[in-house]
Amino acid sequence: MPKEPSDVDVWLGRETPRVRRAFENASRYFDKNDHLTVNTLEAVYAQENSFGILMGKRGSTDTAGHFQFEPKTAREYSLIVSKNNDQRFDIDRASSAAARYLKDLNTWFGKRMSMGEGLYTVPVKSLSERKRFVLGAFNAGQGRIARAQHLAQEDGRDPRLWSEVVNYIAAAKGGPAKQEETRAYVEMVPPF
Q1: What is the pLDDT of residues 23-59, one digit of tens each?
Q2: How far is CA 133 from CA 36, 37, 40, 108, 154, in A?
Q3: Does residue 132 sit in the same domain as residue 163?
Q4: Cβ-proximal residues to 87 (8 Å cutoff; 6+ apart), any chain
Q5: Range of the domain at 16
Q6: 114 and 68: one domain?
Q7: Which end of the chain is more exposed for a tag (fewer CB within 10 A), N or C?
């Protein structure tokens, strides 16, 4: 009996050279010090929109596009978001913005960084552990993950271990559903 193709096999069968080039070009923002690769970017893409299937509506005030950016985050990374021009749907621009955001998250969780209103990240020195925080923050927002770090620390837990911090996302203004979504999101992205 033939084996069912995996989602990755299906994706690889329909991935276009343009999309592949967009990922490869965007991954140039990464370097050997941040433990992020073109594979990370592609895995995030898969999680965010099921390999290009669930992209939402152009001009939406909700998350949309190739990497499911909220309009505010998209604009922070120089993407135009309007009904007539929504660059969240431009694979080149969206991939570049996603790579820069992942790189920034890696920097922010690699040192003590202000998230505003007296909130700071707790530095995570382990690259593999930090990658979990980066992915969690891409999904749930860096402020929410920094807040969860502090709640974990206040509760006597290690704020540098994802397995401890993920349990505080609901209390960090995420709610139980967001906590479970973020836990699953981080578990589903392979540790490249």
Answers
A1: 999 999 999 888 899 999 998 998 898 877 888 888 8
A2: 12, 16, 13, 10, 18
A3: yes
A4: 65, 74, 79, 80, 81, 93, 94
A5: 1-100
A6: no
A7: N
